[in-house]
Amino acid sequence: MGELIKVGMADYKTGSHPASLISYGLGSCVGIALYDSVAKVGGLAHIMLPDSTQSRATENPAKFADTCLPLMMDEILKLGAAKNRLWAKIAGGAQMFTFANATDIMRVGERNVEAVRQVLRKLDIKIINEDTGGNYGRTVELKLDCGIFRIKTIDKGEKEL
Amino acid sequence: MLSEEVTKLSSLQLDALREIGNVGAGNAATALSQIINKKIDMTVPQVAILPLGEVPDVVGGPETMVAGVFLRVFGPAPSSILFLLPRESAMYLVDMLMGRDRGVTQALDAMDESALLEIGNILAGAYLNALSYFTKFTLLPSIPALAMDMAGAILSVILIQLGALGDHALVIETEFSTEGDGVKGHFFLIPDPGSLSTILAAIGVKE
């Protein structure tokens, strides 16, 4: 068992085999795992919002899909990953509360997932698996020795992507 | 006011917010006490300015299993109200509300959920009475919504909204517990970023 590195809300961490990266209790936020299975290095991001250009507080680039993912990718490449081997697995983007007249605020999970897809497309990184949407929270863990992305929930069981 | 500016609140302003929290949570605790017919103790409210990522630690960490009743507050100072109970406490509370023996409720049916929502409604109303009294604002709660999940996931709903405007949250939080039973809960009032200065101006502690 390697080190377990925690990734907080609006944060990202990178690392290499045999460590694991974990982020607890994602709701409408999205967890994005990037990994190179040959170099066995990767990163996990926990983004809160889709787009830094729509925000007035952009000091922390890890908060937004559009600013966090390029940063994290560069750091993973510096750890020895090859760009063409990188893949992504994503999870989260739930809608925790359902109101009759759901406003945009309530649908932020959906918008986060869509933004993550767009940014990854731009970076030319393929999403090989995902577990998004729903109305429940998730804890996500990326194992850097094998690339397994484990998703834990309270009532919907546990799965490995 | 951007939520970054909440880090610059004076001690007078913090005291004023604490007093609102005190009276509001006191009202709410009295209402709950009458419903379940038990004495309720509550803590002096904490008024804290926290980095967004640390808010879930207030209730035991992002993975803590909680029941959350969430309401939006409409009016001149839009805010969010969140009433969080650890899962076990929520089950005990439902036992009391539904007249069951303690420990009988293991999962919530529609009736149980409705009871918890109603509790959220009543507590939010009691709390808002205090806020309205101090600010002279008419503040109306939305219908409540319930989720039973990880604390981090539930809190993210509010934190994301604040995150668009800053990296800190102003949290007015009170912990209460029933005598003997150990039913614990946390009551959060989280003003939207622009609402804080509106509230401070209305209660006369703008500067």
Radius of gyration of chain B: 16 Å
User: Per the principal axes of the C-alpha atoms, what is the gross shape of chain A?
Assistant: globular
Total DSSP helices of chain A = 2
Task: Indicate the CATH architecture of chain A.
Answer: 2-Layer Sandwich
* Helix-and-strand structural type of chain A: alpha+beta
Q: Largest sheet of chain A, described in full?
A: 5 strands, mixed
From the helix content, strand content and strand pairing of chain B, which structural class follows?
A: alpha+beta
User: What gross morphology of chain B would you assign?
Assistant: globular
Q: How far do the termini of chain A sit from each other?
A: 19 Å
Major sheet of chain B = 8 strands, antiparallel
What is the ordering of alpha helices and beta strands of chain B? Answer: HEEEEHHEEHEEH
Provide the β-strand percentage band of chain A. 25-35%
Describe this structure in words.
The complex is a heterodimer of chains A (161) and B (207). Chain A is 18% helix and 35% strand. Chain A has a single domain (4-160), classed as 60s Ribosomal Protein L30, Chain: A (2-Layer Sandwich). Chain A contains 2 helices and 10 strands. In chain A, β6, α2 (108-122) and β7 (126-132) form a beta-alpha-beta unit. In chain A, α1 (65-78) crosses α2 (108-122). With 161 residues, chain A is α+β, with helices and mostly antiparallel strands. Chain A has a 5-stranded mixed β-sheet with strand order 1-3-8-9-10, with no helix packed on it. In chain A, strands 2-5-4-6-7 form a 5-stranded mixed β-sheet, with helices on one face. The model of chain A has no long low-confidence stretch (mean pLDDT 92). The radius of gyration of chain A is 15 Å and the shape is globular. Chain B is α+β, with helices and mostly antiparallel strands and 207 residues long. Chain B has a single domain, classed as CheC-like (Chemotaxis protein chec, 3-Layer(aba) Sandwich), CATH 3.40.1550.10. Helix content of chain B is 41%, strand content 26%. Chain B has 5 helices and 8 strands; from the N terminus they run αββββααββαββα. In chain B, strands 1, 2, 3, 4, 5, 6, 7 and 8 form an 8-stranded antiparallel β-sheet that branches. In chain B, α1 packs across α3. The two termini of chain B are 13 Å apart. The A-B interface holds A 8-11, 24-29, 48-49, 54-57, 59-60, 63, 94, 96-100, 105-106, 108, 135-139, 154-155 and B 2-4, 52-53, 56, 61-63, 65, 68, 70, 142-143, 145-157, 159-161, 163-167.
